[in-house]
Amino acid sequence: MVNAQEVDQPAALERLQEPLPPPEWLDDADETAQLMVYLVTASARLHDVNDTGSPPLKNPAELSRKEFQDALFDAVANPIVFSPRGGRPRSQPTTIVKYIGVEEQHTLRDDFHHHAAVKLSHKSRFMPFKLALRQRHGLATHWSTSHQQYWSAARYLTATTEHKPVVDVDRVVWTPEGSPEMNIFEESQEPWQANTWRKRREAALSAPVDPEQPSGKKRRFNKMDFTALVIDQGLWTRDSVMSYVESKGSAEMQTWVNARQRKLKEFIQDAEEWRAAPAAAQAEKETDWQLVERLSLGTCQCGAQGCLWWSLAEQFFHRNAGVDRERLAASLRKVIQFGPGKIAKVPLIVGATNTGKSTVLDPVRAVFGPGAILNKPKIGASCPLSRLAQGKIRFMYFDDYRPVDYAALPKVPAPTIPATLFLAMFCGQPFDVVVSQSFHDGHPEVEWHRGAAMTAKEEGLWEPKADVTREEIRHMQSRVEQFVASFQIPEADFETAPLCKESWCRWILTDSISFANRQGPERPLSSARPPLAPLARPELPIAELAHASGSADGAIWL
Ligand SMILES: [Zn+2]
């Protein structure tokens, strides 16, 4: 008789001797990749039997989390670089800016290992750090290059999944002194991306059917899917949405969209806000001038060697002696920093057609983004400035604008931008904005304290027209700082310039500083006159007033 145990034992033993499947973390390690995020693992599984080098290989199980962290920090601080050509050392050494360290052993058979999710200060290859861990600390490590963003590596170590039912909650979490503490939950979330969201929904079409789930439980098309579709496909109008869904959408999408046809406009606007939110949040943290300063540090799309826009702008300034490039830059800087008013006027470039005057200002569209630029309204528009009421406009750019025409036309019912409105807008005083009555109640009052600039054809620009008086025209003229361009570029030589926002900002920054230096130190750019000191008010003649009201204790003041 054969004992059942005796039969099973060799089979169980055999199973124990079967090689383990490779662990998840043992994935791509591309030595040529230059990354900021690595998932580093120290495991005895990585020990090479032929590696008899010094120091001898250490069993990671003998290391505490802290000891592994110290070894890794030391390796990053002291990388081992083999450079046959004796390459130039980095001007700025790479440091660790985020660190999560865990120790794991999933089953008794599984080997013990340390993991670390590391974010570096610069994009770097991992080999110099890996070598330093081996040669300075006797640790064999794997550097995974498959986590492109930190959230992914952080999530791998801290979130439980079907494959990884338990994670190490006694992990080491480190950020540099002075920087905010790391929130593991926030750190391990994937940022929302329209494209990823859409692809995930589309992939569900081919996902295997779960026999445990009734078919009705399949994830339905929802508003988030709609948002992703609008953003990813650029379907910014009702017609484009309907047309796409009719021809390319699933029956479910068609039903969903059809049932909400009246709401589509609102949903498209929601999608626009959803998309713009990160930029809007950034804008809330940064003044317009801080944005210009930040962009001025960057390199434009033309590349580091030079900029096509700057070449055309330079040519423009060279040909038009009437436009002082430093004064124009200073004028733009002032109006961006302070808004039009006592300190700043609105820069206005005038000239004939084809002088390239718009070329000089156009990049402002890219600086603030199309959603934050107010273009000149159409003459006769019923709500010409309504976008100002939404609070998202950062710059008014009136290209080819004629203040007198707008103050004169149309006669009935009223001119588009009357002289009084022009003056209030560009003096920093409150003015009413007409908005569509179906969206708002009444006419919100706004004040403009941000940037503005104009271009205009010179001929007859300030000639009186209709009811606009010479007096009003003089006042309007006093709100602008005029720069005259006279050189007409031959039609054949006219080139369209790229909207290089970084180069534009660099020009504003550097030339406004040159202009300020030209003015001498007694007139700093930041303030046109010394701040007003508070002055004591005249004393109230309390005794006399009290006497007059028949009260001796001054109670009239209460
Ligand atoms: Zn450029």
CATH architecture of the largest domain: 3-Layer(aba) Sandwich
Tell me the distance between the termini.
Answer: 111 Å
Please state the average pLDDT score.
Answer: 85
Strand order of the largest sheet: 4-1-3-2-5
Total number of beta strands: 12
List the domain count as a whole number: 3
> Ligands in the structure?
zinc ion
> What is the CATH topology descriptor of the largest domain?
Replication Protein E1, Chain: A
Low-pLDDT parts are 1-6, 549-558
Query: Which range does the strand content fall in?
Result: 5-15%
Concise overview:
With 558 residues, the chain is an alpha/beta fold. Helices cover 37% and strands 12% of the residues.
Provide a descriptive summary of the structure in words:
With 558 residues, this protein is of the alpha/beta class. The chain has three domains: 17-187, Replication Protein E1, Chain: A (3-Layer(aba) Sandwich), CATH 3.40.1310.20; 194-208 and 217-283, no CATH class; 331-497, 3-Layer(aba) Sandwich (Rossmann fold), CATH 3.40.50. It has 20 helices and twelve strands. Helix 11 (288-296) crosses helix 19. It is elongated, with a radius of gyration of 34 Å. The N and C termini lie far apart (111 Å). It binds zinc ion. Zinc ion binds next to helix 12.
